[in-house]
């Protein structure tokens, strides 16, 4: 061992002997810095991620599929990078320095992301570039420190402090969930309720998590003199990869059958100890069971993307005062996980045991998959009903058309080459639902014949395929005038209402709705279509010349589009509100069942899966399983990325597809689990001790001893914390 390693070990041993304790307890003071650091870091991560999908849609102006794809690409990268962080910590810098350096990268990512959300900083291409650079840096930061922080906290305890270490991990887990819950409540408020640069304040919503990450870094550094800092001791993952590579290489080169080598890994025995090879065999059996698992995470991680987008088209009001934000619903998972963990441990599992049902860990994981599939079944039903309030765009070679009759009597409309609007259109009646008008040929100029009181008027209008239109019909004393205007049928993702005015009077009118100004020209002039906040508008100011009056528009609800006809009666302005696109009439509470099911599935799948994995692997192989587990999350997000960009399905069909895929994967997993034989890794000590007694040579025992000393780092001896994904 070199002088540098000896010096680091001396420092570590000194730290072990002088580590101060918290007042009146046997806990080292250093863990308080680690717990606060984790709370702030989780706040920064989940707070930023909570508003990310809406940021892509409302700020960067991306469509839903691209926003979903980038969201899951980022999530995937966050779970690929922990492997890199573990390699850096164990092979080069050690856990302490790795946390410090990658936290600096983390902070830089948050700052770059926040700057990219400032509208005055460059154009849209620069905003996109800064946003992507910020997300990449954040992914490397959060992923890199993920495998280090919990294990570093475990390092602060002496070997005999098993109870204290176990309680620390419980506190550590609570800090994770506390950071998650608070951030998913607070950052959506910073985004939506605080206005800056003329709109939602995404710069603040990203800036506060950046500040929390700076606090996390400062707090962690502040405890530097109190930490036990074990030096890097080599990475077992690297040894495993080299051993597997050598076995494959030797087996490929050899054309002879060797009866002594019953397993392909036995071809690495010339260089690696038999115990290591046997341990790798045990781990590979567990990793084989990991192959179907990404599909669970493909469903689970859509809470922050597809489920949030679903919430934007739902009614978020609770009474007349409190309005939930769509990105705040994600807090429900973190709240429920804190509630469900003790309920399952104290109530559910004991009751199942009383029924004499042998619910093995792999069976629990299968049930967790089924619950997640049921969650997406519930999401499918919700989405199917949500879609009833949405006006679907017209397919190619068609457009959407509705008609407003603002004349004084009923009108009959004949459209050349079409049988639409066969019934008379009544005066000032709410328009019927949009009709699909067939277009075709090289010209989309269509002749319209309007009949009023036996008087026939003809007009020609130009339509564009896949757009939506309103045809305004009104009299001018000589016949009926046609006026074609383009409509906005896309529901506001900001939980606002679309509003426009048509003024039948002769004088222009200025209308003030909340903070939004509308200018409505006279003689059937039409205002711009603007968004207004969801509210009850009972006193709307209208000014025409020197005259000022007030009108009531009633409730302008979530996601609806309204056209208000302004008429004049004895000098007073009279409004008639018409609905072009229905409001979001499915309440957000209908999402609760899918959150309950997905969280129950997480408890049975994720927590049980980690416990099973670690019970089936040798102590010094736990890092390999941790890497494999995190990679299942990464690949799960890749699946969503592929489906979001490539499937092209309606959203309810996509939810149903994911549910069916998970059921199919669950069947495959159950089949694999049926043939799995549970093992006790502690048997390794007895097995190889017996082999040593029977005459294993000294060199083999030395190789095994050196390998165990190299890989038995405390990183792999700590229980992994099941953080909210």
TrEMBL record:
Q: Domain of life of the organism in this record?
A: Eukaryota
Name of the protein described by the UniProt record: Uncharacterized protein
Q: Which organism is it from?
A: Dallia pectoralis (Alaska blackfish)
Q: What is the lineage of its organism?
A: Eukaryota, Metazoa, Chordata, Craniata, Vertebrata
């Amino acid at each position: 061992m070199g002088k540098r390693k000896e010096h680091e070990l001396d420092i570590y041993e000194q730290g072990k002997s002088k580590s101060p304790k918290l007042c009146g307890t046997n806990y080292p003071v250093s863990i308080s810095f680690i717990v606060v650091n984790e709370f702030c870091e989780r706040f920064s991560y989940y707070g930023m991620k909570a508003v990310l999908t809406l940021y892509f849609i409302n700020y960067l102006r991306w469509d839903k599929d691209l926003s979903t794809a980038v969201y899951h690409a980022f999530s995937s990268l966050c779970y690929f990078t922990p492997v890199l962080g573990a390699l850096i910590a164990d092979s080069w810098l050690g856990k302490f320095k790795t946390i410090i350096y990658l936290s600096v990268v983390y902070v830089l990512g948050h700052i770059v992301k926040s700057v990219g959300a400032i509208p005055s900083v460059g154009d849209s291409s620069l905003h996109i570039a800064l946003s992507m650079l910020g997300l990449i840096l954040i992914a490397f930061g959060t992923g890199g420190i993920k495998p280090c922080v919990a294990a570093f906290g475990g390092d602060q305890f002496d070997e005999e402090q098993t109870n204290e270490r176990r309680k620390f991990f419980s506190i550590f887990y609570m800090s994770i969930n506390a950071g998650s819950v608070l951030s998913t409540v607070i950052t959506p408020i910073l985004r939506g309720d605080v206005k800056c640069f003329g709109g939602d304040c995404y710069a603040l919503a990203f800036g506060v998590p950046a500040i929390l990450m700076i606090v996390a870094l400062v707090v962690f550094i502040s405890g530097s003199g109190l930490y036990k800092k074990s030096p890097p001791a080599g990475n077992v993952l690297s040894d495993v990869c080299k051993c597997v590579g050598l076995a494959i290489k030797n087996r490929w080169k050899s054309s002879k059958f060797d009866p002594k080598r019953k397993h392909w890994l036995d071809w690495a025995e010339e260089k690696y100890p038999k115990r290591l090879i046997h341990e790798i065999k045990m781990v590979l059996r567990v990793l084989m069971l990991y192959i179907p698992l990404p599909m669970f995470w493909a469903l689970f991680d859509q809470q922050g993307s597809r489920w949030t987008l679903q919430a934007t088209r739902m009614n978020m009001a609770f009474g007349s005062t409190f309005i939930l934000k769509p990105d705040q619903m994600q807090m429900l998972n973190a709240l429920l996980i804190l509630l469900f963990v003790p309920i399952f441990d104290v109530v559910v599992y004991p009751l199942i045991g009383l029924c004499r049902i042998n619910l093995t860990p792999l069976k629990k994981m299968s049930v967790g998959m089924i619950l997640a599939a049921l969650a997406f079944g519930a999401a499918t039903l919700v989405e199917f009903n949500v879609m009833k309030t949405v006006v679907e765009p017209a397919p190619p070679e068609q457009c959407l058309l509705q008609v407003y009759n603002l004349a004084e009597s009923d009108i009959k409309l004949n459209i050349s080459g079409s049988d639409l609007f066969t019934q008379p259109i009544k005066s000032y009646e709410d328009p019927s639902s949009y009709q699909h008008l067939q277009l075709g040929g090289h010209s989309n100029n269509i002749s319209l014949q309007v009949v009023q009181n036996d008087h026939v008027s003809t007009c020609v209008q130009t339509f564009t395929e896949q757009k939506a239109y309103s045809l305004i019909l009104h009299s001018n004393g000589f016949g009926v005038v046609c006026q074609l205007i383009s409509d906005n049928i896309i529901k506001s993702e900001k939980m606002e209402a679309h509003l426009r005015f048509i003024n039948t009077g002769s004088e222009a009118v200025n209308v003030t709705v909340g903070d939004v100004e509308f200018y409505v020209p006279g003689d059937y002039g039409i205002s711009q279509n603007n968004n207004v906040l969801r509210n009850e508008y009972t006193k709307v100011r209208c000014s025409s010349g020197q005259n000022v009056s007030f009108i009531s528009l009633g409730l302008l609800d979530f996601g609806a589009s309204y056209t208000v006809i302004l008429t004049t009666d004895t000098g007073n302005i009279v409004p008639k509100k018409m609905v072009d696109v229905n409001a979001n009439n499915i309440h957000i509470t209908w999402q609760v069942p899918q959150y309950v099911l997905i969280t129950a599935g997480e408890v049975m799948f994720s927590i049980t899966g980690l416990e099973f994995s670690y019970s089936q692997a040798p102590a010094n192989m736990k890092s390999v399983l941790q890497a494999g587990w995190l990679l299942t999350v990464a690949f799960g997000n890749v699946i969503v990325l592929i489906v979001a960009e490539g499937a092209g399905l309606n959203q309810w069909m996509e939810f149903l597809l994911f549910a069916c895929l998970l059921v199919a994967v669950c069947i495959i997993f159950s089949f694999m689990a049926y043939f799995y034989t549970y093992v006790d890794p502690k048997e390794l000590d007895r097995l190889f001790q017996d082999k040593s007694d029977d005459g294993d040579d000294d060199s083999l025992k030395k190789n095994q001893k050196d390998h165990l000393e190299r890989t038995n780092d405390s990183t792999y001896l700590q229980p992994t914390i099941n953080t909210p994904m």
